[in-house]
Inverse folding.
């Protein structure tokens, strides 16, 4: 028998009561990718029935964040629940006419002037629904009582609006956070009362902090925008978020969007909470930075560069950027590196202390002897590139002991306990500056 396959419709219905949360961003990606894999569509709506907490600036932040991640959807189909009062009213009136909901006279706390709400007439049955992640879930709805679905015909509440919207827009798959699992039985009761079909439910494990508590601000940033502002790459963020609660079952950790479209499997979502691990995120981001061309790297980091670096001449800037690229996990790290003075050797002669120039037990004489020889070798090099410098010095350094030769040379050039290797430094500083710095170090050693 042939079966008519329904177009898969997923949805992302954030409440604009805060900036785009990393959890919502992950939910968005799973909805987006699952829909795309099935040649379906992800719809977007704003659940702004909470008038006091919903703000346009949050709507804008949510949309900008999704755009930054590359999640697109048909904006012409986007709507706000606040614009659909008439539609919800129609459904409420029908439920009341069918005696499946009723006005209930009562005093509502904190809203002394209100004396009526609309309650759903609960038939108090057991409901079983299938969740993609958790399997069959049984729920005795008796404990829910006749729950409130609207404050009035004009003021519907969350459970009613969700069910109406999902029904009216033909949603086939509800993919959302685990925290909504306890809302599902109420929503199924309303669906049944309206004669709406039940979508397939997939409740995603919550994103937890490393201590397995609920992820919150005290663990660091929870808004996507903060990651953008810190200079994480959107591709890296997508990659990282996709691995929160799902893994391919192989060792692969870096995925392009087209690989995710091939590999992602909604049926393989894990049950347990997913840990938001900043160390892993930094690792993923660094992998993406490593893959960037120098031109792209420069274009992306330029807004993060402190003035002191930005104004360097183009050739030197490109060389400095190659050192920075090795050292950072995310673009904003450059500020710390510069502020800590770690790149100061690019901007002027470092201050040198005699004892720092000496490798372990060597003594000043040996350090001086090696630096004299290094100068002799360097003076003969015409093409003063890092590779050439290394090639010319390597045999001498290997014979004499690399630490013994290369430590004083590196320290003479950088004045720092930690810096790139001396060949890289010399290549960046150029022949004249390199020789001057080493000569100055020899003077100090005498
Ligand atoms: N507006 C809800 C939220 O932001 C989503 C509701 C749902 O996915 O059903 O948490």
């Amino acid at each position: 028998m042939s079966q008519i396959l329904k177009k898969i419709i997923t949805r992302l219905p954030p409440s604009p009561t805060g900036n785009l949360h990393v959890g919502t961003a992950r939910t968005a990606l799973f909805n987006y990718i699952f829909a795309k894999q099935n040649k379906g569509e992800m719809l977007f709506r704003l659940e702004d029935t909470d008038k006091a907490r919903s703000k346009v600036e949050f709507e804008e932040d949510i949309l900008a964040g999704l755009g930054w991640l590359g999640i697109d959807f048909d904006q012409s189909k986007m709507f706000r629940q606040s614009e659909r009062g008439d539609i919800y009213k129609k459904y409420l009136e029908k439920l009341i006419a069918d005696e499946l909901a009723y006005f209930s006279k009562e005093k509502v706390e904190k809203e002394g002037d209100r004396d009526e709400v609309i309650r759903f007439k609960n038939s108090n049955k057991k409901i079983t629904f299938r969740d993609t992640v958790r399997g069959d879930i049984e729920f005795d709805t008796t404990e829910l009582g006749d729950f409130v679905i609207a404050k009035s015909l004009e003021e519907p509440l969350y459970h009613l609006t969700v069910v109406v919207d999902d029904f009216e827009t033909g949603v086939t798959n509800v993919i959302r956070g685990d925290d909504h699992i306890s809302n599902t039985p109420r929503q199924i009761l309303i669906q049944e009362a309206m004669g709406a079909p039940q979508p397939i439910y997939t409740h995603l494990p919550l994103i937890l902090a490393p201590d397995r508590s609920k992820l919150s601000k005290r663990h660091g940033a929870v808004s996507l925008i903060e990651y953008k502002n810190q200079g994480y790459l959107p591709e890296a963020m997508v990659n990282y978020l996709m691995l929160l609660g799902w893994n391919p079952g192989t060792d692969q950790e870096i995925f392009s969007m087209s690989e995710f479209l091939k590999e992602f499997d909604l049926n393989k979502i894990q049950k347990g909470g997913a840990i938001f691990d900043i160390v892993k995120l930094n690792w993923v981001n660094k992998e993406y930075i490593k893959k960037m061309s120098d031109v792209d790297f420069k274009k992306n980091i330029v807004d993060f560069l402190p003035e002191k670096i930005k104004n360097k001449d183009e050739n030197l800037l490109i060389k400095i950027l190659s050192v920075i690229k090795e050292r950072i996990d995310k673009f904003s790290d450059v500020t710390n590196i510069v502020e800590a003075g770690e790149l100061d050797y690019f901007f002027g002669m470092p201050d040198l202390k005699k004892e720092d120039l000496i490798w372990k037990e060597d003594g000043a004489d040996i350090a001086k002897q090696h630096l004299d020889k290094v100068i002799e070798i360097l003076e003969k090099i015409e093409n003063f590139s890092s590779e050439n410098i290394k090639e010319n010095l390597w045999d001498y350094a290997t014979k004499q002991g690399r630490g013994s030769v290369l430590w004083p040379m590196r320290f003479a050039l950088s004045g720092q306990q930690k810096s790139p290797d001396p060949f890289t430094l010399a290549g960046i500083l150029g022949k004249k500056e390199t020789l001057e710095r080493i000569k100055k170090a020899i003077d100090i050693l005498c």
Summary: The mean pLDDT is 95. The longest helix spans residues 22-37.
